[in-house]
Amino acid sequence: MPDVDGKQRVLVVGAGPVGALAALYAAGRGDDVAVYDLRDDLRDPSTTPLNFTKSINLALSERGINSMRHAKCEGLLDAIIKESIPMHGRMIHGRAQDGKIYQEPQLYDAKGRYIRAVDRAMLNKRLLDYLEQMPNVTLHFNHKLTGADFKKNVAWFEQRTVARTDHAQNPTGSAPTVSNRDRPKEIAVDFDFMIGADGAHSASRFHMMKFARLAYQQEYIDTLWCEFHINPKLSDSSFAISPDYLHIWPGGSFMFIAIPSMDKSFTCTLFAPESYFIALAPLSAEDFVSSFSKNFPGVCPELISPEDLRQQFTENPHLPLLSIKCTPYHYRSSVVILGDAAHAMVPFYGQGMNAGLEDVRVLFDFLDAHDVYNDSLTLATSRKERREGALNAYTSQRTPDAAAINDLALRNYHEMSAGVKSPLYRMRKWLEESASLYLPSLGWSTQYSRVSFENQRYSEVEKAVARQGKMIVTVIGLGFVGLTGVTAIGLLRRSGLRPLRALFDHLQN
Question: Could you tell me where the beta strands, DSSP code E, fall in 299-431?
C-alpha cells in the first residue's frame, strides 16, 4: 500500500536529466522512489542515443548548476563540472566586404561569468550512477506508461523485452511490432505522487489531461535542425577552433553553431527554414559546398571536408523544433509534470535543460515550505493536503516563468542569427554592461546575464529588461535632444534667428 511507514511512494516517469534529478531530490528526503523509462539504460553502450548521432552538447548555466548543488549529493556537481568546457562568449564568424573571413569574440558577461558545454549523455549517466547507489531507489528501463488513474493513484506500464530504438520526432519503423496475443506484459504500480519528466511527447501529460482541465498550446516553428561534427586537427588532435566560445555563423533566417566537446571535437547544428533544407538536398556536390561556403564562411572545407559535410547532411535526421505551453502543471496531490513535458522550448537560449533542472529545485522548495517532509510536527492537515497546496503554489509561480523563458527563447533566435551583428544590439549591450560595472546600485544587467548567470525568476527578468529598455530609449532620446540643442545654439550664435525662422516656415508649409 502507498505511504507505508510514513514514506511517500514517488513514481518518476522519465530517466533523463530532469527525471533523474527529481528522483535524487525525492530519495534524499526519504521517499521510496521508482523511476520508469521507455528506453533502455543510457549507460549501456548498445543504447541508441536520442538523435542517432554521437552526442548532444548542451549549455549548462547557473540555474542548472544551482539545482544540482541543492540535490546535496556529495561529488555529483564536481564530477559533472570536470567533464564540461567553459564557454566565455560567442565567436561570430563571417566574411568582410573585402572577402576576408573574420572571427569576432563577444563575451557573455562583463563580470567574466561563463556557461559550460556539457554532453547530455554524460550528465545523464552521472545522475543515474548516483541514483543507483541509493537504497530507496529502483530503476526500471524499457517500460512504457500506458495508463494512469490519478484518483486511485495507480499507473500501468508495458514491460518491453526489446528496446525502442527510433526517435519520437523521427520514427524509423524500428520499434518492435507485436500481435495482440504477444503484447508485452503489463504491470500496475501504486504511488502517492507521480512526477512526469518524460519529454515533449509526454505520456504523463497525455494521461493527466484526462483528469485536469489542462490548457495546452503546441507550436512547430518554421525551422529544422541537423547535427554536424567537426573533428580534432589531424596534426596534433587539438581543437580545430577555439574551445572557449560558442561559435556562431549568423545568416539572418538561418545559422550554424558549434559547441566544443571533451574529445576536442565540436558538435555543430544547422538551424534553417524547411525550404532551405529542401533547396540544399538536390544540389550537386560542388553547388552544395558553394552554398555552405557562401552562407557559413570558414566551415567547409576548412573545418569539415566536402565529403563529410554532404554525408552528415544526408544521413543525420532533419528534426523539427517544438514549443509547448500548458497549465496547470499538476492534478490535485497526485501528479506534476516538469521540464519539456510542461514547457518544451526552442534551444536558442540554452535554457531547456537548465529550466527543467530548475523546475525540480523550485518544486521541492514548495514541498518543503508546505511541510510535506516535516514529520516532527503534529499538523492539522494530512500530507496529501499539504502536497496539494505545494503543487498549487508551484503551478501558480512556475507557469508565468516558463512562459517567459519560452518566449525569450523564440526571440533569441533573431539575436543569434542576425542581431549579434547589429550596431543597436552592441550599443545596448555596452550600455547595460557599463551600468552594471560602474553603477551597481542601479541593479542593471543584460538580459543574457540575468537568464544565464542568476537565479532571478524568468518572468521578473522579462519585466526588468523591459524597464531597462525604456530607460535606455529615454537616455538616448535626451542625449539626442541635448546634442540637437547644443548644435542649435551654436547655429543661432553664428547666424542669428534665420535658421529658427526657416524652421518655422518649413513646418508651416
Answer: 319-327, 330-331, 335-337
